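BUG-218 | component: ligand-complex export | severity: low

The export step for S-adenosylmethionine jobs runs without errors, but we want the raw record kept on the ticket for reference. Input record follows.
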Amino acid sequence: MGRKLEENKELFNTWATTYDQSVKKPTGVLEDYNTSLKTAAGMVDHFNSGRILDIGIGTGNFTELFVTPETEVHGLDISDEMLKECQKKFPQFHLTLGEFPNIKYQNETFDLVISSFCFHEIPPNQRNEACREIYRILKPNGYALLLDIMFVSTQSRNQAEAEVENWDPSEEYALVGDLNDMLLSAGFSNVFWRQTAKYHWCVCAKKNGEKEDPPFKE
Ligand SMILES: C[S@@+](CC[C@H](N)C(=O)[O-])C[C@H]1O[C@@H](n2cnc3c(N)ncnc32)[C@H](O)[C@@H]1O
């Protein structure tokens, strides 16, 4: 069973001031967090200008890897304390308190939508909508880059549960194949995967213009 929104807010509000310290040498499912952020960012290493949205931005550690003089960074998070920490580090970021996928961004606003270690916080029954919302707010030819704790099969997830100390049964990690299907049905046509650490996968999906209807059959 996943955590309720209020429980999540409290968890991340409480964690905010020590978060950066705890991800310096993380253990458990977050092991190799820093390597994963860098490897994931490398999947769009040609990206150096445009408007970015980071969903579940936390203290800004993923977005930081995309900052150039030509990028404009927006961040969304349910935790005001995380946002405070982020704003202290990056006064130039445009931060919004809010809950994905309930968002008010206009269609085709962003060139790049990123998210790290947040997708599993979205309840499974809202994940299709989450993919559709990412597609909607991306400009044509924009990219989605989603990094998270994920598994290729239920078996590999169960294996991780058996070997990881302090496994949290309230976290509902996605399966790679399920998220792949959700992205395709949201309209993405180019979907590439990379395993960035033992328990981490990153997907890069490109929005090629408008979603096309299947050809008519006479
Ligand atoms: C594990 S932290 C990851 C933070 C950051 N992306 C990183 O990689 O360090 C998850 C973040 O997602 C936020 N979050 C959880 N559920 C969310 C939701 N539905 N919408 C927006 N943010 C959410 C939390 O408040 C927290 O800051």
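Assignee comment: Attached the raw record above. The longest helix spans residues 5-15.
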